[in-house]
Specification:
Order of helices and strands: HHH
Largest sheet: none
Structural class: mainly alpha
Strand content: under 5%
Number of strands: 0
Protein backbone atom coordinates (compact mmCIF):
# COMPACT_ATOMS: atom_id res chain seq x y z
CA UNK A 1 0.00 0.00 0.00
CA UNK A 2 2.79 2.42 0.85
CA UNK A 3 4.67 1.54 -2.35
CA UNK A 4 1.59 2.30 -4.46
CA UNK A 5 1.22 5.60 -2.63
CA UNK A 6 4.85 6.51 -3.27
CA UNK A 7 4.70 5.51 -6.94
CA UNK A 8 1.61 7.69 -7.49
CA UNK A 9 3.24 10.62 -5.72
CA UNK A 10 6.50 10.15 -7.63
CA UNK A 11 4.73 10.03 -10.97
CA UNK A 12 2.71 13.14 -10.21
CA UNK A 13 5.92 14.93 -9.21
CA UNK A 14 7.64 13.75 -12.39
CA UNK A 15 4.77 15.07 -14.52
CA UNK A 16 5.02 18.36 -12.66
CA UNK A 17 8.75 18.45 -13.38
CA UNK A 18 8.20 17.87 -17.10
CA UNK A 19 5.58 20.62 -17.17
CA UNK A 20 8.04 22.93 -15.39
CA UNK A 21 10.82 22.21 -17.92
CA UNK A 22 8.47 22.79 -20.86
CA UNK A 23 7.28 26.08 -19.31
CA UNK A 24 10.89 27.09 -18.67
CA UNK A 25 11.87 26.45 -22.28
CA UNK A 26 8.77 28.02 -23.82
CA UNK A 27 9.07 31.18 -21.73
CA UNK A 28 12.85 31.25 -22.34
CA UNK A 29 13.41 32.31 -18.73
CA UNK A 30 16.94 33.63 -18.22
CA UNK A 31 17.72 32.67 -21.82
CA UNK A 32 17.90 28.94 -21.04
CA UNK A 33 15.86 27.90 -24.09
CA UNK A 34 17.94 29.97 -26.51
CA UNK A 35 21.19 28.74 -24.96
CA UNK A 36 20.11 25.12 -25.38
CA UNK A 37 19.07 25.73 -29.01
CA UNK A 38 22.34 27.50 -29.88
CA UNK A 39 24.57 24.90 -28.21
CA UNK A 40 26.04 22.04 -30.21
CA UNK A 41 25.29 19.83 -27.18
CA UNK A 42 21.74 21.06 -26.82
CA UNK A 43 20.29 17.55 -26.64
CA UNK A 44 22.59 16.59 -23.78
CA UNK A 45 21.83 19.83 -21.94
CA UNK A 46 18.09 19.31 -22.40
CA UNK A 47 18.32 15.71 -21.20
CA UNK A 48 20.34 16.66 -18.13
CA UNK A 49 17.98 19.52 -17.27
CA UNK A 50 14.91 17.33 -17.72
CA UNK A 51 16.24 14.38 -15.72
CA UNK A 52 17.49 16.62 -12.91
CA UNK A 53 14.25 18.54 -12.56
CA UNK A 54 12.16 15.37 -12.96
CA UNK A 55 14.01 13.57 -10.18
CA UNK A 56 13.91 16.62 -7.92
CA UNK A 57 10.17 17.14 -8.33
CA UNK A 58 9.45 13.41 -7.93
CA UNK A 59 11.52 13.22 -4.73
CA UNK A 60 9.84 16.35 -3.38
CA UNK A 61 6.38 14.96 -4.08
CA UNK A 62 7.27 11.63 -2.46
CA UNK A 63 8.70 13.36 0.60
CA UNK A 64 5.65 15.55 1.06
CA UNK A 65 3.44 12.52 0.56
CA UNK A 66 5.19 10.51 3.27
CA UNK A 67 5.32 13.40 5.71
CA UNK A 68 1.60 14.02 5.40
CA UNK A 69 0.44 10.42 5.81
CA UNK A 70 -2.12 9.80 8.52
CA UNK A 71 -0.91 7.23 11.02
CA UNK A 72 -3.03 4.23 11.91
CA UNK A 73 -2.28 3.05 15.48
CA UNK A 74 -3.56 -0.45 16.26
CA UNK A 75 -5.89 -0.41 13.29
CA UNK A 76 -7.80 2.62 14.61
CA UNK A 77 -8.08 5.58 12.30
CA UNK A 78 -8.70 9.11 13.47
CA UNK A 79 -9.99 11.69 11.01
CA UNK A 80 -8.09 14.60 12.57
CA UNK A 81 -4.76 12.69 12.52
CA UNK A 82 -4.77 12.48 16.26
CA UNK A 83 -3.70 9.56 18.39
CA UNK A 84 -5.95 6.87 19.80
CA UNK A 85 -4.99 4.28 22.34
CA UNK A 86 -1.96 4.50 24.59
CA UNK A 87 -0.82 8.00 25.41
CA UNK A 88 2.85 7.01 25.63
CA UNK A 89 3.14 6.26 21.91
CA UNK A 90 4.96 8.83 19.80
CA UNK A 91 2.87 10.82 17.40
Amino acid sequence: MLINHLVKAGLSGAVGGIIFVVALLVSDAFGIGSMIIKSHLGGVALAMLTVGVLLTFAALAMGVSVMTLAWDWDGLEDADHGQKGDSDRPM
